[in-house]
């Protein structure tokens, strides 16, 4: 399924970005999240693993459910980013548009369950 390769690739790239753009992800992580650096790096590892998992037929369904859970779990960070935007961030309207983007991503992942 070519769509699963695209979905997997999207999350693999996003996962690696947690390591290359660590300061950015730390900045958008809500202050109430404990062990913020660990959370940023661990979520990157999880994104990579689930992205790889959705590519392979044997693990696709499990990984898709994991992606759904992950997308729901990281939504507060996207909302926090929107509400705490600073001058280095994209425009507020772009951050607002990103919030409902979780829905089609969840539906895309759900199509592989």
TrEMBL record:
The chain crosses the membrane at residues 6-26, 38-56, 62-81, 93-111. It is found in: Membrane. The keyword Transmembrane applies. Pfam families: MauE (PF07291). Residues 3-75 form the Methylamine utilisation protein MauE domain. InterPro entries: Methylamine_util_MauE. Keywords: Membrane, Transmembrane, Transmembrane helix. This is Methylamine utilisation protein MauE domain-containing protein. It comes from Leptospira kobayashii.
